[in-house]
Write a structure and sequence with these properties.
The protein is mainly beta. It is built from no helices and ten strands. The strands form two sheets. A six-stranded mixed beta sheet has the order 2-10-9-4-5-6, with no helix packed on it. Strands 1-3-8-7 form a four-stranded antiparallel beta sheet, with no helix packed on it. β7 and β8 form a beta hairpin. It starts with a strand and ends with a strand. The mean pLDDT is 96.
């Protein structure tokens, strides 16, 4: 079965850092464009970052310069390094195979306060 499972969320103070992980099973994530998306309380899903099959990356303006997406092909795992966190980054974070959240896992909660 195709499955994505996110982890690494926590409660941190503004300015702190976290690294989120997304373990993939049932498919090779390096063969797909992979997305991190998030949903803040009362808001819609928001695209955060993309890593293309080539390894090229893209970021939403709100996280550019603070977040870094990467993958480990040997571990079939996607990562999101988040630095200088802000209260506005509080959300449930998901990894997904589409920008609208297709195939996403259960998510991991990030709280910045």
């Amino acid at each position: 079965d195709v499955q994505l499972v996110e982890s690494g969320g926590d409660s941190v103070q503004p300015g702190g850092s976290l690294r989120l992980s997304c373990a993939a099973s049932g498919f090779t994530l390096s063969k797909f464009w992979m997305y991190w998306i998030r949903q803040a309380p009362g808001k819609e899903l928001e695209w955060v970052s993309i890593i293309e099959t080539s390894g090229a990356t893209q970021y939403a303006d709100s996280v550019k310069g603070r977040f870094t997406i990467s993958r480990d092909s040997a571990k079939n795992t996607l990562y999101l390094q988040m630095n200088n966190l802000k209260t506005a980054d509080t959300a449930i974070y998901y990894c997904a195979t589409t920008p609208s959240g297709g195939g996403r896992g259960p998510g991991t909660q990030v709280t910045v306060s």
